[in-house]
Amino acid sequence: MNYSNVKGHTDLVRDNSTGAILNNDTSQYNQYLSQRAKRKQGSERIDNMENDLKSLKDDINEIKSLLRALSNG
Q1: Phi/psi at 68 (5° precision)
Q2: Contact in structure between 41 and 33 (CB atoms under 8 Å)
Q3: How many percent of the chain have pLDDT more than 70?
Q4: Closest CA to 16 of 27, 3, 6
Q5: Mind listing the pLDDT tens digit for each residue in 12-33?
Q6: Is the pLDDT of residue 51 over 90?
Q7: DSSP letter string over the chain?
Q8: I want to staple 12 with a disulfide (CB 3.0 to 4.6 A). Which of 6, 16, 47, 51 is the partner?
């Protein structure tokens, strides 16, 4: 592969065959992967809390209906 430097950016190179600009700074890449993992973990945490909340609401509704049945009969 043939690369050429991008003017004004020491950590970027251009792939001459495709024209793509590539970042060759591994620390920035590792930082990106870490941030992406944190975002995914946060998203999964929110999803779990939403599922727990839905389950609690369902349980409360079931308890309410059982209490109504007991009070009516």
Answers
A1: -65, -45
A2: no
A3: 100
A4: 3
A5: 999 999 999 999 999 999 999 9
A6: yes
A7: --EEEETTEEEEEEETTT--EEE--HHHHHHHHHHHHHHHHHHHHHHHHHHHHHHHHHHHHHHHHHHHHHHH-
A8: 6
- The answer to whether residues 24 and 34 touch, using CB atoms and an 8 Å cutoff, is no
Chain position carrying tokens 């998203």? 43
- For the chain, give the mean pLDDT: 94
- In angstroms, the CA 73 to CA 67 distance is 10
- Residue 17 — left, alpha, or beta (φ > 0 → left; ψ -120 to 50 → alpha)? alpha
